[in-house]
Every structure is written in structure tokens, then in C-alpha cells.
Amino acid sequence: MGQVRPQDYRPAPGYGTGPGTVHGGAYRAAYTAVPPPRASAGMTALVLGGGVLAFVSLFLVLPFLLENTGPGGFVVGFIASLLPLGSVLLAVRYIDRWEPEPKRLLLFAFAWGALVSISVTMLIQPFFSLAAGPASGLDYRTFAVTVQAPVVEEFAKSLGLLLLLLFARRQFDGPVDGVVFAFTIAGGFAFTENILYFGRAIAESSTPGTDLAVVFFLRGVMSPFAHAIFTGTTGLILGFAARRWHSGLTLLAFPVGLVPAMALHSGWNSMGQDFLAQYILVQVPLFLLAVLVVVLLRVAERRLTRQRLQEYAAAGWFTGQEVAMLATPAGRRSALRWARSIGRGPQMRAFLHAATRLAFTRQRILSGRDVPAHQLDEQRQLAEIVALRDAVLR
């Protein structure tokens, strides 16, 4: 994650005196003079467009759910679906806490998964069935479960990922970002799908309590992360493609990323009478592998942060002790405890997050992508670092 081509390397701006250096006071003055950066036109269009699509989709998705679950089933299904959704969002919070994504983009991702991707699925499925069903040679139920659902649903969910990458590329610049956005989209999709399944268990059963318990155990306990893992593979691949931004590479990475997502989804839906054996022997190891990938990504993210902040330390912006504090979980916890003890916890948290953003801004500069724009961000963020350090230590 931290590899840089020699031709793209640029030294960090210096702090202090001498040729090629700048004073912290000058940056502090710049910080007070330069307004915070506005959201890009692409991000604004993405969020507004996503909001409109989500609102329109509501008029398609909500009647469909009510028709299949009834009012009572819908209410019970909605409440029950909050529990598995909570586990996915907690995982997103854990993965995303090092360099948090903008809340507006996370909201876009959730709305896309919960409403827009459901609408896209409902609209595309009939045409896909007519086009590909007869050619598959499968009976309709087998085709719908093992081919149609994986292909159409993963395409609908991952389309939101592609839009995030195209219109908010400055916030989507690595595999961790890809996994965070993918998990959020998938969590929204699973939330709406669970309302349907849980509500049907109430509306269509003579023993609704028992059937709801069974369905909830299968979907809410055994597989709350199924959709997240499927779509997470697409987000991971798009995130690696984003490390070297190129529109052609991104468009190529999109179908490549869909392949493992669709394959995993189809494998899950294909489990039949030997469900328990396949779950233990295949799905549990896949879940553990996903956990391992997330852990490794977070380790790589921390190493990247440390590597880039050390370059700023060499230029005089941080001490070695500050880098250890800013780039390690133990250092951050210790710093927050100390800051809270003197009533400056929010200031310290802002300082930690600002330093992490600065490290990733430098990584974008060294990747050779949008260098002038990111150098302006770097100047503003260095000024912010100076001001936030003053706020903590004053």
C-alpha cells in the first residue's frame, strides 16, 4: 500500500528555517485565512443524485414490502432486521475508525444498498430472466436462486461502488475505503431483504413465532455478513485499482471485481440439503478469511500512516514520539486518555484524525494522481495540524 514509484516521489515540505522550508507561523496564518475545502462538484452531484434516486425508489420498494409482508409483518421484520444491520455497521465503524469516510458518502452508500439497489434488482430481474434463463438449461427456481439473484443483485449493489469511485475518488483511494463502502451498501441491501424474509415468516405462516425464529437464526445469526462478504470482494478489487487512478483501469476492475462476488453469492445460494456441512466446511472458513483480510488491511493502513508521518517528522513537523503516538493504536489510546484527563479529548481526537488524513493526502501526492490539488490539501492540513496541536497543548 505504501509503494511509490521513484518518479512520483516528492519530499515533504520543510518546517523551520533554511532554503525550501516554511515556518509553522506562516502555515498557522494560512489556516486562519483559507476556508475549509468545499465538497467537489462530483461528490455534491453524487449525494444529491443518490438522494433523489433513493426517494424515488422508496415508492417502488415500500409497496412491494407491504404487499408481501402486510403491515404487521413489515413492522416486525423492520425491527428484527435492525439487529443484523447493527452488527454490520459496527464492523464498518471498526474498519473505518482509522481514517473515517465522510458521513454523507456513508449515507449515500447505505441508501443505495437499502433502496436504489433493490429497485435496480426488481427492474432488471425480469429482463435478465427472459434473456438468460432459457439458455441456462436450468429450471426456473434453480436459475433464479443460483444465477439470476447473484448476477443481478451483485451488479445492482456494486454499481453504487462504481459511482462512488468515479464521483468521489478523493475519498475512495484504497482497498480499505472499498471494503468500508461495500460493507455499508451490502448492509443496507441485507436490511431491506431481511425485512422481506422476516415479514413473510409472520404473514405467511400458521406458526409465525417459530418460523420467524428459524429465519432469523439463519439470516441474522448464521449469516449477517453474507452480503457484506460478497460485495466486499468487489470493493476490495476496486480499491486496489483506485491506488493507481485511471478511468480505463477502473472500468476494467469493475467486471473483474464482480466475478468473485457473484461466485460467492451463487455458492451460498446453492447450498442444499447438506447446508450445515457446507456452512461449516466452506462458509465459516470464508468468513474467517474475510476477517483476516480486514485485519491485514488495517495493519497495512497503520504502517502506511507511520511511514508517511515519519517523512513529515524528518521535515520537522512532528517529533518521533508524536509519530509513535499518532500511528499506533496503543499511542492513540494513551494520548486520548491523557487529553481527557485535562478536558481536551475532542481536540486530541481531532488532532489524531487530522494527522491520519495528512498521511493519506501525502500518499495521494506520491501516487502521482491529482498532485496540484492534493498539494493544496496538504498545505491546508499542515496548517490545521499546527492549530490543533496548539489547541491540545494550550
The number of helices is: 13
Helical percent range?
over 70%
Structure summary, number of beta strands: 2
Evaluate the radius of gyration: 24 Å
Structural class: mainly alpha
Shape: elongated
Q: What is the residue-mean pLDDT, rounded to a whole number?
A: 89
Report the major sheet.
Answer: 2 strands, parallel
Arrangement of strands in the largest sheet: 1-2
Number of domains: 2
Query: Order of helices and strands, N to C?
Result: EEHHHHHHHHHHHHH
Distance separating the two termini: 36 Å
* Poorly predicted sequence stretches spanning 5 or more consecutive residues: 17-23, 30-34
Q: Beta-sheet strand percentage? A: under 5%
Q: What's the structural blueprint in terms of helices and strands?
A:
Blueprint (H helix, E strand, L loop, with lengths): L13 E2 L5 E2 L1 H10 L7 H56 L6 H34 L3 H28 L7 H29 L4 H14 L4 H18 L3 H23 L5 H40 L5 H7 L2 H13 L3 H22 L4 H23 L1
Parallel strand pairs: 1-2
